[in-house]
């Protein structure tokens, strides 16, 4: 990937997807990748992972979840929280926001719920993988996840998924990951630009990644 630019080509910015999904097991580096992507783009994006909802739980319940313990509170349902997260994503998209979603779609109903939420919006899907031993090491190092959860999720989180890009974070630097993503995004955007004249007349026509003239 040596000469691949760490950016989106300026004339393709207006073809960026409305939503980028970053799906993978806990501790695989999804949030770090989303934040780096956000910082690398000159246009507004919102990073809205499932943790934004989970961290709104009552503190005692969040502590229980992090420890892998059952939450007993009346009304609690993990599936309900996932559905709520996806409904919020839909609301942000309908409001005109570009949304980057880091999550782990662990069940068939979660995948169906996400697909329904982004229906009608262009979505670029990234699958994040990582070797199990490295997941275990990162999980122990961060200390805020139930022991063994990353390994368990790695077996199921990619089932039934179709991706535009797979990124293995085992021993890949964040800089290289970004190059992989931007390379794939440039190709994805270029393919859609061929069927659209929006990039000839849009806000970013003739601009490079920081908004200045590309000439």
Write the layout of secondary structure elements.
Layout: E1 19-23, H1 30-40, E2 46-47, H2 51-54, H3 59-66, H4 78-94, E3 99-103, H5 108-117, E4 123-129, H6 132-142, H7 149-154, E5 165-168, H8 174-193, H9 198-201
Parallel strand pairs: 1-3, 1-4, 2-3, 4-5
Helix pairs in contact: 4-5
Q: What does this 3D model show about the protein?
A:
Its EC number is 2.7.1.-. This is Chloramphenicol 3-O phosphotransferase. Keywords: Transferase. One of its GO terms (molecular function) is transferase activity. It comes from Leisingera aquaemixtae. Helix 4 runs parallel beside helix 5. The chain has nine helices and five strands, in the order E-H-E-H-H-H-E-H-E-H-H-E-H-H. A five-stranded parallel β-sheet has the order 2-3-1-4-5, with helices on both faces. The N terminus and C terminus are likely disordered. The chain is an alpha/beta fold and 215 residues long. It has a single domain, classed as 3-Layer(aba) Sandwich (Rossmann fold), CATH 3.40.50.300. The protein starts with 18 loop residues before the first strand and ends in a 14-residue tail after the last helix. The longest helix is centred in the C-terminal third of the chain and has 20 residues.
């Amino acid at each position: 990937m040596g000469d691949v630019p760490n950016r989106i080509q300026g004339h393709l910015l207006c073809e960026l997807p409305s939503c980028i999904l970053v799906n993978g097991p806990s501790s695989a580096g999804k949030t770090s990748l989303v934040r780096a992507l956000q910082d690398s783009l000159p246009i507004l994006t919102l990073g809205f992972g499932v943790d934004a909802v989970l961290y709104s739980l009552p503190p005692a319940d969040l502590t229980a979840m992090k420890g892998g313990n059952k939450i007993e509170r009346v009304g609690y349902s993990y599936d309900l929280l996932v559905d709520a997260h996806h409904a919020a994503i839909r609301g942000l998209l309908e409001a005109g926001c570009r949304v980057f979603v880091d999550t782990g779609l662990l069940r068939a109903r979660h995948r169906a719920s996400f697909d329904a939420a982004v229906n009608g919006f262009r979505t670029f899907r990234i699958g994040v993988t990582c070797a199990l031993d490295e997941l275990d090491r990162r999980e122990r190092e961060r200390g805020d996840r139930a022991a063994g959860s990353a390994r368990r999720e790695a077996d199921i989180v990619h089932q039934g998924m179709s991706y535009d890009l797979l990124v293995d974070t085992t021993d890949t630097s964040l800089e290289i990951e970004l190059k992989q993503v931007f390379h794939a995004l440039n190709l994805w955007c270029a393919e859609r630009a061929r069927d659209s004249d929006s990039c000839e007349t849009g806000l970013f026509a003739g601009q490079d990644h920081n908004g200045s003239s590309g000439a």
